[in-house]
Design brief:
The chain is α/β, with parallel strands linked by helices and 200 residues long. The chain contains ten helices and five strands. The chain folds into two domains: 121 residues, Rossmann fold (3-Layer(aba) Sandwich), CATH 3.40.50; 71 residues, no CATH class.
Length: 200
């Protein structure tokens, strides 16, 4: 039985749907994006260091990180992105470890958008599942669900690992360009059965 699965995919790939389906199958989800949001809410663990590094202007009126302002800064200045990651990644990693420990013997799915960029995750999981689709599909989906411009979506895609880099680390790939929602869930469940009934 596979106890630790790393899940990754680009924006708009369908990764969140796959994560939800794995939870329905019985997995415990450790969502690093959700952890990142929680530590940057008002009173979050990352806020003091972020304010000290980037200035009080990145804190919104609600006391949380102004994510749009931070995103704009990080896209404009690669060193800002590096400083941001140096603050939040260790905090995310520690919280992910605590959540995994709390799951006990249950199968854990680590949802990590930057899995292929973070080498240490390979040692923490037994299998890596990549959800993949073309850039055109990514743009179409994200524009439809978020109202972002195509240029804004492509800017986010450009900041993420290339598709080939993600696919290169995969133990399994779900190609989600033309799948219906039902078909995507069916493929995910089939992989869950394979990994839970096959050899470790």
């Amino acid at each position: 039985m596979i106890r630790r699965i790393g899940l990754t995919g680009g924006i708009g790939s369908g990764k969140s749907t796959v994560a939800r389906t794995l939870v329905q199958c019985g997995a415990v989800l450790v969502d690093t994006d959700a952890i990142a949001r929680s530590i940057t809410l008002a009173g979050g663990a990352a806020l003091p260091a972020l304010a000290a590094t980037f200035g009080a202007a990145i804190i919104g009126a609600d006391g949380a990180l102004d994510r749009e302002r931070m995103r704009t800064l990080a896209f404009a200045d690669p060193t800002a992105k590096q400083r941001l990651e140096a603050i939040v990644h260790p905090l995310i990693g520690e919280e992910a470890r605590l959540q995994a420990e709390a799951a006990g013997e249950q199968t854990i799915v680590f949802d990590v958008p930057l899995l292929s960029e973070s080498g240490h995750w390979r040692a923490r999981v037994q299998r890596i599942l990549v959800v993949d689709c073309s850039e055109q599909t990514q743009v179409r989906r994200v524009v439809a669900r978020s109202g972002w411009s195509e240029d804004a979506v492509r800017a986010v895609i450009a900041q993420q690992a290339p598709r080939a880099q993600r696919r290169a680390i995969a133990d399994a790939v779900i190609d989600n360009d033309a799948l219906t929602l039902d078909a995507l869930q069916t493929e995910t469940r089939a992989l869950w059965v394979l990994w839970n009934n096959g050899p470790r």
